[in-house]
Design goal:
The chain has 342 residues and is of the alpha/beta class. It is built from 12 helices and 14 strands. Pfam families: Transket_pyr, Transketolase_C.
């Protein structure tokens, strides 16, 4: 597998920063630990976040390390969790609220879209809401209808929010640290099927991955594959399969959805002439529709085929048919073949 490894966007101690192999959830934990130690305004809270360390143990050990005033449990009320985070942020704190599953964000929806996203605008810049909402997202763990949804498009449609979804441990740490330091509210989706499956070297020093910057995971000349979050391992495996048949696919990981890296995408499509967009959210009103519009609008003359898309189906998420619902390697390869033969 050929991949580019981005350099840290912040200075780290030493010329050769020490790295440790971590999985994605360990990288999330480390980012939270470092930000709690760095900035006393940072607090973590949510359902079971304190004593237990969260349902996926992302905050395990942090309450004993930093105390119950900075890492604490909340009632089972997403509206209260988000509402408290907005109030804390407006008063100068840096709250990191966990919603136990992305599927549960509904009760806090009004606080997110009507309060957090708009407070800078409605106050004429007098107030801001520098908060982060962390939430496990997506399928692949047989969680069924209420534990496997990918609702990122709701939030990319809301002006005032930033939306992030990492796919590697390196990015999980760097993006989360950048999100906590952002002066805008950030929805930070964590693809739960990669929590322990995605592993990689992560610097032990301080660094950030700039929000709004994608990365080329694999260079290519014949086709651009664009994805983010939980689909990325399948996207990279599809690129490997294409390479075995003589097709060199370029692989882009968006990492940030709002803002997203239009320049990187358009530059790649201008070279390859073909774009295939992959995500696991339902196809209708999928965020990738925005990417498709931008590509056909601004790179139309370079296109050798219509923009292709592989997405989840427009149905509630099934309990057991994960492999059927999710965009796997075979679905990606079938759509890629159509674009290459157009």
């Amino acid at each position: 597998m050929t991949a580019t490894h981005e350099k840290p966007e912040a200075t780290m101690t030493g010329t050769q920063p020490e790295t440790v192999q971590m999985n994605l959830i360990q990288a999330v934990t480390q980012a939270l630990r470092e930000e709690l130690a760095r900035d006393e305004r940072v607090v973590l809270f949510g359902e079971d976040v304190g004593a237990r360390g969260g349902v996926f143990l992302a905050t395990q050990g942090l309450q004993s390390e930093f105390g119950a005033k900075r890492v604490f449990d909340t009632p089972l009320s997403e509206a209260s969790i988000v509402g408290a985070a907005v109030g804390m942020a407006v008063r100068g704190m840096r709250p990191v609220a966990e919603i136990q599953f992305a599927d549960y964000m509904g009760p806090g929806f009004d606080q997110i879209i009507s309060q957090a996203a708009k407070i800078r605008y409605r106050s004429g810049g007098q107030f801001s809401a520098p908060l982060v909402i962390r939430t496990p997202s997506g399928g692949g763990v047989k969680g069924g209808h209420h534990h496997s949804q990918s609702p990122e498009s709701y939030f990319t449609h809301t002006p005032g929010l930033k939306v992030v979804m990492p796919s590697t441990p390196y990015d999980a740490k760097g993006l989360l640290k950048a999100a906590i330091r952002s002066d805008d509210p950030v929805i930070y989706f964590e693809p739960k099927r990669l929590y322990r499956a995605a592993k990689g070297e992560v610097p032990t020093g301080d660094y950030i991955v700039e929000l709004g910057k994608g990365v080329i995971r694999r260079a290519g000349t014949d086709l651009t594959l664009i994805g983010y979050g939980g689909v990325m391992p399948d996207v990279e495996r599809a690129a490997e399969a294409l390479a075995a048949s003589g097709v060199q696919a370029e692989v882009i990981d968006l990492r940030s959805l709002v803002p997203w890296d239009k320049h990187l995408v358009l530059e790649s499509v201008a070279r390859t002439g073909r774009a295939l967009l992959i995500s696991e959210a339902p196809r209708i009103s999928n965020f990738m529709g925005e990417v498709a519009y931008t590509v056909q609008r601004e790179a139309f003359d370079a296109l050798l085929a219509p923009v292709g898309q592989v997405a989840g189906f427009d149905t509630p998420y099934p309990y057991v048919q994960d492999k059927t619902y999710l965009p796997g390697v075979n679905r990606i390869l079938r759509e890629a073949a159509q674009l290459l033969s157009y």
